Amino acid sequence: MEFQQLRYFLEICKFRSFARAAENCFVSPQGISMSMQRLEAELQCKLFAWRGKDLLLTKHAKFLLPIAEKILDNVDVYERYFHVGKHLDQNVKLVLSRGAFEEFAEAPIQKFKELYPNIYLDFRRESDVGAEMSVKSEVSELAFCPGPIDCAAFDSQLVCQSRFAVYVHQAHPLADHKAITAKCLQGFPLTVMNEQTKALSLLLDAAKAAGVELWINNQTDSTKTLFELACVEGQVGVATMALQPIAALSKRKLKAIPFQEESLEWRLYLIKKKGAALSTNAKLLYDVLVTHMEKVKKC
Known about the structure:
The protein is α/β, with parallel strands linked by helices.
């Protein structure tokens, strides 16, 4: 299996189109199709199926999707270091939980690179738990992580927030709701983010407060898989409203319905170890992130 094949695979999953994926990867549709044929031959299974004009993922593709994302995340870290970082004397680490880059960090990270080209910024994505552990174990001085935050272990600053929502197909029985409660979900099969994220514990706490037991049918660490199951298999996906553009990007016929419970809100924090003094490079990064945060709040 080649890394380029995995990149093509992710683009096809993203756009639900070989042609769009080929255009985005600057290759021909025939080239990307042949690459997928070779990948299917190597794996000895079918990754895609057609339902009319709709391109669907098989169960094998759904299994491969989150694994491919993790592999390519690690490849990107490897390439950044060996093509850039090894030539620099200075570096700083930043860990981002899933969704943090897309929702907040992309712009300030780019700004930091422009301001300090001599500093190698080693940023990588982790689960919510992994982001916290990276700071607690001093692997990284800074991380972005959703709340709730352990104030005894971390100093934190709120970066952004959005309501959690359920994601359902437009034909789903819940699709007519303008807002939802945990109690409304009783009896429906749910797809939620796994225990390495804080979404699951928040949802279970809300269900307990409402006096209901929820049917957790699937757990995943991939929002793409969550949207796929909500669209194709009629699951009820639970994720943050901040991720709604991902669903729209994939042209899925999904509807996002916000929760009424105030406790079901996604809050992203910039964290560091409690009372820890930042290194010179980490302080420079911290200042860029906080400056960007202040600008966002004014807008």
